[in-house]
Amino acid sequence: MSTLSIHGDVHIPDHLIHALDLKPGVELAFERQGDAIVIRPLVASKMSRVEDGPNILAYKGAKVTLEEMDDAIAKGAAKSL
What we know:
Elements: H1 14-19, E1 27-33, E2 36-42, H2 53-56, H3 66-80
Antiparallel strand pairs: 1-2
């Protein structure tokens, strides 16, 4: 259990810091949900977009179109029958 200080500071229990792998300096977002306060870490590096997929996966091969992917999938499916 934590206590709110006169300055509005709250100590996050160690087990929660470790469970969420929080590091010093991480930004936290506070939300009110009814009579509760939800605190979420803002971790921009974990957010990604679909188009970032090849970079996230460290893919170094040639880029292909969706049509080329669909064709390859169809050929693979036909071979498996």
